[in-house]
Description:
Helices cover 46% and strands 6% of the residues. By secondary structure, the protein is mainly α.
Amino acid sequence: MPIKIIDTITPEELIPAITRMFDLSARKIVDIDKSWRTEDGAPVFTVNGKYTTRGWTEWTQGFQFGSALLQFDATDDPEFLEIGRSKTLKHMAGHLTHMGVHDHGFNNVSTYGNLLRLINEDRFPFNNYEKELYTLALKVSGAVQAARWTNIKDGRGFIYSFNGPHSLFIDTIRSLRSLAIAHKLGHTLITEADKKINLLSRLIDHASTTAEFAVFYGEGRDVYDRRGRTAHESIFNINDGQYRCPATQQGYSPFGTWTRGLAWAICGFAEELEFIDTLDDSEFQHCPDKTTVTDFMLRAAEATADFYIDTACTDGIPIWDTGAPDIDKFGDFSQRPSDPFNDYEPFDSSAAAIAAQGLLRLGNFQTTAGRKKSGAAYRQAGLTVARTLFNEPYLSSNPEHQGLLLHSVYHRPRGWDFTHEDQNIPNNESSMWGDYHLRELALMILREAQNKQPMKFFSNAQ
């Protein structure tokens, strides 16, 4: 049994829960801002309710300061604009030229991107130099991200992960935002011999490679080929550019599906569809035509969204990996609501927050394209998941807990997630990306309920 989709939920109905969530969120943002020592690095996840760091790659700093900007967006409280604005200017410059990560869309679009979007919406006083600074930052970020490139045999390629040039991560589909914004702002990447690289072309190549090799379509690619399943990592031979095999870093097995990676795919493809839809046909002179691009992105978005709906619990929360080793001990866990306090395997609320936004965006895209039935189904699935997340046991109402979204999972295989003494599995803790995406999901729904401008990552590129 898939998610038990509630057809009657409306964005307006969720306003009280969203308002309460942002009320709880305010204190937590201030608490983290006052207690966090920047010399410790970026906060990543909580241990006993307090944010800690974990050196691997610096991919969560933007979520910390970006959360304050989302809080301002939702409440107009200038305290949070000041936190997000001042801390971005003070601490985020290094992330613009960080050559070692595939995470520019996380760090820089969440900070500089939100600030430029708010300026373009005339939400706070600014001068032109400030606007130009954010614009330049986003151009630089998009070009740096696009330069992290591996060519494959057929002439396409991909933005490679921090594992090295052989490695394509599913996560990076959402970092394509950085290339999209830079392209929209009129920027190009210039490489050796002054060769100019079109950023839209590079975005489309990466998305196409991801859609082909990291998403499964039930067409017999291997004996585990189930439509909508995703591979966390896709491995290529960089000597000849050929694809070799699926792999995983944070999932259990290359032949299961790590559900946060699945969620990145749903959200990433859906919002890139929204972006591609705004472009004029003339912009595709260096790329496959607009229809071809839309078709492969829509195919990937629908497959991954359908798989999520079919494999999550009835309340919309997924287990951390669909192939987790003790999953059989649940019986048929998809026949009932999630239980983050079970004895066998953790659920991942952060995957749900990311996927819910993707489901809403895909539903909106389908509805706009005239496919109202499927559009409504995806939208209601997203709203169903959102309603679960905006309430206990997933919303953290404890003012002493710095996290906002409970029962998030970071790196289960490495044992990085905290397990309380009276529990057998990690639970009751939060992550920076989970908290950020819960706020982003809530703001997206709130804006719709209040008939405000839709929240889209590329609305800052004007």
